[in-house]
Design brief:
The complex is a heterodimer. Chain A is of the alpha/beta class. Chain A folds into 3 domains: about 160 residues, FAD/NAD(P)-binding domain (3-Layer(bba) Sandwich); about 140 residues, FAD/NAD(P)-binding domain (3-Layer(bba) Sandwich); about 60 residues, no CATH class. The radius of gyration of chain A is 21 Å and the shape is globular. By secondary structure, chain B is mostly helical. The two termini of chain B are about 25 Å apart. Classes of the chains: A alpha/beta, B mainly alpha. Bound molecules: flavin-adenine dinucleotide.
């Protein structure tokens, strides 16, 4: 009996378990899945919690219920990976688990401690994140009584998972305060280390116009050095400062601490990964998927979904001693909530930035790319159901392929 | 493809003003680019950063981030901003004759 071990049962690990259980012979392979948390979160839903559009229950399910019965599911923190010995050490019972093939799907997490003064006593008083369930829920409480002052959203460092989420947050905040009738008393400012609203040029242009239109200030090229919570201001390395009453932070995103303990990561503890095969650069029998990789594409659930198809194929090839397929192209697909019941949709890969057009089918769409529409908003809301019932099970989504299609797109 | 006249030299650059042919780079050219970036003089501290960028780029094939400059190159971030104000890595990379750093997604 051989062992295939999956570390992390979030989006990517769960999809992989569901794919592989259908492809590997149960007589030959034992699939083991390990995660430290019994709860599976629909993380895209965290965005809506502060504005009371979703509650905790709607974004939380039991992890075990998504793991196929034929897999061995272990609830424990992984202490480290000993890649030389092909062993994973887990904390519970101090057990050793041998592997023939390892899939790292441990995601990324926020680390507020990386910015001086951020993780101090004001955290969860007037400083909040919404990238964790705790942060999102506490921020909801705070927003209930916040009716005037300066709301500053700051991205500490890039890359971050779901790079559009911070923009969506300020768009939704604008809508939220407008509905409450207090928008004119609230100063909204988006502070980013980038030189523009977003990393992709055409999308940035569209979104900057929208920020402007919604009267949301933007401060670019702001590389945060510290939070001065006494003076209620954030300070950059070149000594610019922005004052806040409420600071919504996207702290530094890093790979899991197990990557650090195993010495397998880069400066941010993301695992160096081959960009089109998803094999680890250092160890042939280790594969990496989802937010845990160092690939230059978005850290998004859609990416994990596309990667999973290609990785499944490559695992089978690896087992059969065939050459790996160099197929993954960085395909990502994201809805962007823009407030007032509308949204955008963008679709891109390593080489082709988001452009206008129709999706997933040319001409008929029904979704519009890089254009605001009500349908895109409904698409985003429907995505929660697709996530639980289609995506996690590794089922195909009609019309959407793992590699990017240029059909229906206006490419110059 | 464009050309840029720098003192007595003419170098090939992309549309973004970053050099495209590393063989054309030399220290005098670096001084000239620095002036365009409003840095009057390249001190030993500037050169320390430039040389680290060049060395790391050669080894890794990508421009190091501010975090890496600090962690691996031992260059304090505040100091870095004093040396190359506003977008230090972008500026230093241009002076070092390297491509424009890609910001990831
Ligand atoms: C606010 C927000 C909004 C988002 N919006 C969108 C969106 O609109 N569209 C989209 O496509 N994506 C979105 N995302 C991103 C998406 O949720 C992630 O990209 C996706 O979940 C990545 O999957 P993953 O499996 O790589 O990581 P995760 O789903 O985070 O899973 C990692 C798992 O590893 C486990 N783990 C980590 N370390 C250890 C250890 N040492 N031992 C044991 N277990 C461990 C964790 O418990 C976790 O279950 C959003 C994310 C956030 C935070």
């Amino acid at each position: 009996m051989k062992n295939l071990v999956i570390l992390g049962a979030g989006t990517a690990g769960t999809v992989m378990a569901n794919h592989l259980v259908k492809k590997l012979s149960v007589k030959e392979w034992q699939i083991t899945v390990i995660d430290q948390d019994p709860r599976h979160f629909y993380q895209p839903g965290f965005l809506f919690i502060p504005f009371d559009m979703y509650n905790e229950k709607q974004v939380t399910r039991e992890k075990a219920s998504f793991i196929p019965k034929k897999c061995n599911f272990i609830l424990s923190e992984v202490d480290n990976i000993d890649a030389e010995k092909n062993v994973v050490n887990i904390k519970s019972g101090k057990k050793k688990i041998n592997y023939d093939i390892l899939i790292i799907a441990t995601g990324s997490r926020i680390v507020p401690e990386e910015v001086e003064g951020l993780a101090g006593s004001s955290y969860y008083k007037n400083i909040f994140d919404f990238y964790t369930i705790d942060g999102a829920v506490k921020l909801r409480q705070f927003l209930q009584t916040f009716t005037k002052g300066k709301l500053v959203l700051n991205i500490a460092e890039i890359p971050i998972k779901c790079p559009v989420a911070p923009l969506e947050f300020v768009f939704l905040a604008d809508w939220f305060f407008t509905k409450k009738g207090v928008r004119e008393n609230i100063d909204l400012t988006f502070v980013t280390p980038l030189s523009d609203a977003f990393t992709k040029e055409k999308t940035a242009a569209v979104l900057s116009t929208l920020l402007n239109h919604k009267n949301i200030n933007i401060v670019t090229d702001f590389s945060i050095s510290k939070v001065d919570s006494d003076e209620k201001q954030i300070v950059s390395f070149d000594e610019k400062n922005v004052e806040y009453d409420l600071l919504v932070t996207i702290p530094t995103n890093m790979g899991s601490s197990v990557i650090e303990r195993s010495g397998l990561g880069d400066d941010l503890e993301f695992v160096p990964t081959h960009r089109s095969t998803l094999q680890s650069k250092e160890h042939d029998n280790i594969f990496v998927i989802g937010d845990a990789t160092d690939l230059p594409t978005s850290k998004a659930g859609s990416v994990a979904h596309f990667e999973a198809e290609i990785l499944t194929e490559n695992i089978l090839r690896y087992i059969n001693n065939l050459e790996l397929k160099e197929e993954y192209d960085g395909h990502a697909n994201c809805f962007i909530e823009s407030g007032f019941g509308k949204g955008f949709l963008i679709d891109f890969n390593y080489d082709v930035e988001p452009v206008p057009g129709k999706f997933p089918f040319p001409v008929i769409g029904p979704m519009s790319l890089l254009k605001e529409s009500k349908l895109n908003h409904w698409g985003k809301l429907a995505f929660r159901w697709i996530y639980w019932y289609v995506m996690l099970k590794g089922l195909p989504i009609p019309g959407i392929t793992a590699t990017m299609s240029t059909k229906g797109k206006q490419i110059d | 493809m464009a050309e840029l006249k720098l003192g007595k030299y003419t170098v090939e650059t992309g549309e973004d003003g970053y050099m495209t042919n590393p063989d054309q780079w030399n220290k005098e050219i670096a001084e000239e680019i620095a002036k365009q970036e409003n840095i009057k003089e390249l001190t030993p501290d500037h050169w320390n950063v430039i040389e680290f960028l060049q060395k790391d780029y050669k080894e890794k094939g990508s421009i190091p981030t501010i975090r890496r400059l600090k962690k691996v190159g031992g260059i304090d971030t505040k100091e870095l901003y004093k040396l190359f104000p506003e977008g230090p890595v972008k500026k230093a990379a241009r002076i070092a004759g390297l491509p424009k750093p890609k910001s990831c997604v």
